[in-house]
Amino acid sequence: MRLVESRTTLTITYFVLAIGAFTALFPIALLVLNSLKSAQEIVLNPLALPQTIRWDNFTRAWNDARFSQTFVNSIVLTGMTIILVCVTGSMSAYVLARKKIKSWRLVTGYLLATTTAPIQLFLFPLYFGFAKLGLINNVFAVSLVYTAIYSPFAIMLLRTYFLAVPKELEEAALIDGATHWQVFTKVMLPIVSPGILTVALIIGLYSWNEFLIATTFLQQQDKVTAVVSFFLLSGQYSSDWGEIMAAALIIVLPIVVLFVFLQRRFIEGMAGGSVKG
Questions:
Q1: Where would you find the membrane-spanning parts of this chain (predicted)?
Q2: How far apart are CA 244 and CA 79, in angstroms?
Q3: Which of 32, 155, 185, 246 is placed for a possible disulfide with 61 were both Cys, Cβ 3.0 to 4.6 Å?
Q4: How far apart are CA 32 and CA 36, in angstroms?
Q5: Contact 269, 194 (CB under 8 A)
Q6: How far, in Å, CA of 266 to CA of 197, rounded?
Q7: CA-angle at 64, arms to 59 and 66, nearest 5°
Q8: Nearby residues of 130 by Cβ (< 8 Å), 6 or more positions away
């Protein structure tokens, strides 16, 4: 009886996983398929195979969206955001994990509130403030906005990793003559590196795909990000859907490749953070 129940459970599990995999992969497969077709073929039947493979969709998308420039802008913006969030988030999380703070509940409430608060609440005040300071079209200034938005999540996640590290390791390092900064950089950071990698991947994904702030604060053509330039491909009255699909695939491909190579570390980091807290 138990063997029959276990087989039934296993069958149901695989069935649910198959549905989940199909749901996740079908949009990507459809994107790849339509990126190789002409606009007329996509309109007639987006599910059909291409009659003629249109490789020129990718070259036109790359040139029309100016990806050679906008990709660099996105990489610089994403890289600066990742560095700022990981540096400030790890230091803040370490302090919150090791120091006894009487108002910890208040700090937790603040971090949760800032994580869930929509950016639209601060967009207009931020824009007017940045305009007065002359920071519009400044990539570093936009990375600071991203850092302020994503840091609460990073702090909450990294704090769980620091809490899991035994205090005896720090005490032993201090007895051996290490400073608090050396304990943090030489002892703690290598131990919580899976959590830092997880934060870096998530923040990188958010920053790469972010649209609202990028299109508000980066308005010059030589400053826009890849996502914004992709949006500008769509015309007001007509659109070349083959070119748009190819451009979307170009933008998505780096994230997919990065996640495929680092998926094991990413899953271990997320699981470790959820268990250790």
A1: 12-33, 75-97, 109-128, 140-162, 183-208, 244-262
A2: 26
A3: 246
A4: 7
A5: yes
A6: 7
A7: 95
A8: 136, 138, 141, 217
- DSSP string for residues in the chain: -HHHHHHHHHHHHHHHHHHHHHHHHHHHHHHHHHHTS-HHHHHH-TTSPPSS--THHHHHHHHHTTHHHHHHHHHHHHHHHHHHHHHHHHHHHHHHHHS--TTHHHHHHHHHHHHHS-THHHHHHHHHHHHHHT-TT-HHHHHHHHHHHHHHHHHHHHHHHHHHS-HHHHHHHHHTT--HHHIIIIIIHHHTHHHHHHHHHHHHHHHHH--HHHHHH--STTT--HHHHHHTTS-SS---HHHHHHHHHHHHHHHHHHHHHHHHHHHHHHHHHHHH-
Give the C-alpha separation, 61 to 83, whole Å.
30
Residue with tokens 């070349």: 240
In this prediction, residue 73 carries a pLDDT of 93
> Where are the domains positioned within the chain?
67-232
Question: Tokens 């609202």 appear where?
Answer: 212
Confidence check: pLDDT of 238 > 80? no
Over range 94-107, report the average pLDDT. 78
Q: How many CA atoms lie within 13 A of 89 on its CB side?
A: 33
AA letter at 11:
T
pLDDT top residue among 269 and 227: 227
67-232: which CATH topology?
A: MetI-like fold (1.10.3720)
pLDDT of residue 274 exceeding 60: no
Q: Which amino acid is at 74?
A: S
